[in-house]
């Protein structure tokens, strides 16, 4: 009788452990001490790279800005991943490479997007299955068509 109880407790514990959520970290590994050490007017690109490493990505247009991005996602078994934590450190440089501004942001700037079903709306007209299947019959290689007259044609 005691063996059955122990086996039941072990089985329930194993089932409960299988239902825990899975956390994953993506992007830059955040070290708050290092992130807070970057200061405008004191640091430059070299000192920032020595302190924080290479950025996750840099700006393509406008003022030179380096972004350090990290996210923590959480996924329940048989569910989709959701963002549990998000940090962005944006460091803006002037033309000579000195730090002008340091901005930190988090979950307040994360946009939740809910896709609309399984279809993507596009411009143009809807084509049916049969039109897709038989729509080009007679078009390839026809005189005046885009296919020309075949091999060695005009």
Describe the protein's architecture and organization:
This protein is an alpha+beta fold and 154 residues long. The protein has four helices and five strands; from the N terminus they run αβααββββα. The protein has a domain at 39-106: Beta-lactamase Inhibitory Protein, Chain:B, domain 1 (2-Layer Sandwich). 24% of the residues lie in helices and 25% in strands. A hairpin with a 6-residue loop joins β3 (65-75) and β4 (82-93). The longest helix is centred in the first third of the chain and has 17 residues, at 2-18. It is flat and about 70 Å long. The mean pLDDT is 79.
In the CATH hierarchy, the third-tier topology of the domain at 39-106 is known as: Beta-lactamase Inhibitory Protein, Chain:B, domain 1
Structural class: alpha+beta
* Architecture per CATH nomenclature, i.e. the level-2 architecture of the domain at 39-106: 2-Layer Sandwich
| Residue windows where pLDDT falls under 50 for at least 5 positions | none
Percentage of residues in helical conformation:
10-25%
- How many β-strand stretches? 5
Order of helices and strands: HEHHEEEEH
Radius of gyration using CA atoms only: 29 Å
Gross morphology is: flat
Distance between the termini: 91 Å
Largest sheet: 5 strands, antiparallel
Q: How many distinct helices? A: 4
What is the residue-averaged pLDDT? 79
Strand content: 15-25%
CATH class of the domain at 39-106: Alpha Beta
